[in-house]
Description:
The protein folds into 2 domains: 10-187, 3-Layer(aba) Sandwich (Glutaconate Coenzyme A-transferase), CATH 3.40.1080; 201-433, 3-Layer(aba) Sandwich (Glutaconate Coenzyme A-transferase), CATH 3.40.1080.
Amino acid sequence: MLPETQESGSWIDDYRKKxxxxxxxxxxxxxxxxxxxxxxxAAPQVLLEGLVRRADQLTGVKIYQLLTLGKADxxxxxxxxxxxxxxxxxxxxxxxxxxxxxxxYIPVFLSEIPGLFMSGEIPLDVCLLQVSxxxxxxxxxxxxxxxxxxxARKKSxxxxxxxxxxxxxxxxxxxxxxxxLDYIVETDHPLPELASETGTAVEREIGANVATLIEDCATLxxxxxxIPNAVLAxxxxxxxxxxxxxxxxxxxxxxxxxxxxxxxxKTVLPGKVAVSFVMGSKRLYDFVDNNPLVEFQTSDYINxxxxxxxxxxxxxxxxxxxxxxxxxxxxxxxxxxxxxGFGGQVDFIRGAARAKDGKAIIALPxxxxxxxISRISAMLNPASGVVTSRADVHYVVTEYGIxxxxxxxxxxxxxxxxxxxxxxxxxxxxxxxxxxxxY
Length: 439
Ligand code: COA
């Protein structure tokens, strides 16, 4: 794991002293400790498996996490006396636990999570990381996920790092010196990958509609999932695009290689693809390895609406589970089912709305469950939470077109949104609107 040119030296000796087995490392976790888990594809699987093996010796360990790929066995019902998960974002591996009431959800803007750690509002005892091997100067890289990690690491009493030979060395504000780590567990395993979805016909139509809103020289934020990739596939004729986005997925690589994403017109971090984490295939992880084009920064910077708003033509594209006819966006719940989280949706929608010539776009299929449910409805389902308010959204896009909402009255919004609902539901939605006094 150590660079070949370095035999000894102060940080090398320090590194060697800190290397322990996963069993030894996990012994430092005590009952009632508050443990932060590195996020997304950087979730330290070997450390987490070691922690779960200690379940019968621990009670009431609180796990704080964002989205994590891979297993989260500590959330299983059989370990509920040992571990309690508090999640800032509900991923697939904790969704059942949160909806069963064993785990809990913290609704929060991604930009504000580092501040919760820095202020001590959420105190932490142990930080579990997965980092790259150290460089010649003793710096490991946080790799594919920088987002909230620096704040969590700084405020934890004990820092335990899985040093994975296969973690890319990403650049930017992405480094931690060996001296800041307390225990090191050396590993060598591939990172979990997220399949790049090719997209359905509906998603391709949505992508084509969104693409008509994207101007040359725009700076883009694209979220996760099939719709962002479908949008990217429709940008072949655009010029001089840039990227400032909390996350980056595979679709952007082709646009960079074809010279469509140049980052030249960007007004914040010009020349750079600015991100806080990446999730995708090995191709993406190899692309960001040692690549000065991609600047990793923390969530309190990348997702700060004020920073976002300084990008000329900032264009934010996010998705939703349900939209009511006034433009309220449900994105973390489906009725009383907790599904995902705020993530950076509001950060980017607000930032883009305030940017010079910016655009705040929500794109979603008009229906769910094989066409049985309309995602555009007169009212949100009972118990649905609003993630993005109706004052924030400029455009809602489905496969049936674009509803422009900014500056529009409630009646105009309802008309515009019904016109992009699936035709099978338009009459029904309009008749349900009669419940509104203003309709
Ligand atoms: N009623 C019932 N079921 C619904 C529904 C509705 N109104 N809307 C969606 N569903 C179902 C879908 O059918 C799907 O079920 P399935 O897996 O059984 O097919 C499931 O819910 C997920 O919907 P889908 O549209 O596939 O979700 P997605 O993966 O495209 O993600 C969000 C959409 C909104 C959950 C996601 O964009 C998100 O988490 N957003 C908030 C965070 C954010 O925007 N961050 C910034 C960018 S990273």
